[in-house]
């Protein structure tokens, strides 16, 4: 009895597409995730995150600057306002914090070993890191209502500064010698 050969199924993804998909990862969503959804997706095409603002309040609001352009504000703009300007080549490598009904605390870590604390340590802890080594924060998504951020998720991608990713150099402040 002869068997007929069935042609192999076509390859649905090219090797380059699979490799590109592997570099992205997502952490979250942390919080109750009620209210209106928000996303900074698309803003990251302007360039890397160069600065961010956070309001300290029982719940916080977040605003990012991508390559020199401030993005839209989400959450509740009341309380103490904090602005962080990243050094050239500095990128966010981890975000931790506390959440419950709202996101109550955010802690940002960078490849220059700087750490920024915002908010109050109330609620359940979370820690968001990329799945791929060397990836950095590309953008954030989540939910908000009239009182603040109710949920937050982090989207990670390869650094667009590959030379700096492998060998981070911490800028020296106040050193006038060459």
TrEMBL record:
Recorded GO terms, molecular function?
carbohydrate binding
Q: Which UniProt keywords apply?
A: Lectin, Signal
UniProt keyword Signal present: yes
Can the keyword Chloroplast be found in this entry's annotation? no
Q: Jacalin-type lectin domain: from which residue to which, for each copy?
A: 24-158
Q: Which InterPro entries match?
A: Jacalin-like_lectin_dom, Jacalin-like_lectin_dom_sf, PolyBind_ProtTraffic
Q: Which PANTHER family match?
A: OS11G0524900 PROTEIN, ZYMOGEN GRANULE MEMBRANE PROTEIN 16-LIKE
Name assigned to this protein = Jacalin-type lectin domain-containing protein
